[in-house]
Amino acid sequence: MSTPQTLVLQAPTLDQARITELAALSGASDSHSVAANVVRLDGVDPARRELVLARAERLSVDANYVDSARRFADFGLLVSDMDSTLITIECIDEIADMQGLKPQVAAITERSMRGELDFTESLKARVALLAGLPEAALASVYDERLQLMAGARELLTACREHSVKFMLVSGGFTYFTERLKAELNLDYCHANQLEIVDGKLTGRVIGDIVDGAAKRRLLIAQREALGLRAEQVIAMGDGANDLLMLAEAGVGVATHAKPVVRAQASYTLNHVGLDGIRHLFL
């Protein structure tokens, strides 16, 4: 017997006309509003899923099919990417801006996140361009440019309220993950360490690179340490180096993601903030 599915609709503003159209298209038998911009449709026809998702995207509505009985408190771990996921910027691009190299580095970052370049090699190439930059530039990026993604604080609050551990796993740098961990009271974090000598970046990374395979391994290790099953883990990310991690989680969410990630993820949020993850589940 198949598990009953609920269609969750979310948008920055969700008007009745779009709700009515998608409810009819999905074959829903019942609907109820969870918040001003969140509606749950029950009794939906699974056979209409692809048609509904395509139409919802054209209507600028985030539509996700979820198990009707699943609660946010059923999860025990949420694993998140950092750059362009938990925060709005790509830290390495902003660091490069201090060197007057943002266009060059940002172009490599974009291709890497789209899955067009090997992540490890592209990271090494980008970091090499930062050689000689004062360490103080990192502080400037954190203090002046780094902002949390919309809905991030609400999602973190929900995690604390429901005892869901939060792990930040980044292909970025420990300089930023460690500060976010302290500021936001995160449970765990992993990232790459920039080599700094005499107060300046050397253009090298210390130790193994946190790439897509490493993100997956770290998720599995933390899941097992907590004694959780795969279905008790949520992962969220936006780039190609997040795909293995998203596939390993019971719920893998592509958040404002590159096309290659949206195409493969089971859940997507393109229009609302990270609190949309909390709203997927009762």
UniProtKB/TrEMBL annotation:
<comment type="similarity">
    <text>Belongs to the HAD-like hydrolase superfamily. SerB family.</text>
</comment>
<keyword id="KW-0479">Metal-binding</keyword>
<dbReference type="InterPro" id="IPR025138">
    <property type="entry name" value="DUF4072"/>
</dbReference>
<keyword id="KW-0718">Serine biosynthesis</keyword>
<dbReference type="InterPro" id="IPR050582">
    <property type="entry name" value="HAD-like_SerB"/>
</dbReference>
<dbReference type="InterPro" id="IPR036412">
    <property type="entry name" value="HAD-like_sf"/>
</dbReference>
<dbReference type="Pfam" id="PF13284">
    <property type="entry name" value="DUF4072"/>
</dbReference>
<keyword id="KW-0460">Magnesium</keyword>
<comment type="pathway">
    <text>Amino-acid biosynthesis; L-serine biosynthesis; L-serine from 3-phospho-D-glycerate: step 3/3.</text>
</comment>
<feature type="domain" description="DUF4072">
    <location>
        <begin position="7"/>
        <end position="50"/>
    </location>
</feature>
<dbReference type="InterPro" id="IPR023214">
    <property type="entry name" value="HAD_sf"/>
</dbReference>
<dbReference type="Pfam" id="PF12710">
    <property type="entry name" value="HAD"/>
</dbReference>
<dbReference type="InterPro" id="IPR004469">
    <property type="entry name" value="PSP"/>
</dbReference>
<protein>
    <recommendedName>
        <fullName>Phosphoserine phosphatase</fullName>
        <ecNumber>3.1.3.3</ecNumber>
    </recommendedName>
</protein>
<keyword id="KW-0378">Hydrolase</keyword>
<dbReference type="GO" id="GO:0016787">
    <property type="term" value="F:hydrolase activity"/>
</dbReference>
<keyword id="KW-0028">Amino-acid biosynthesis</keyword>
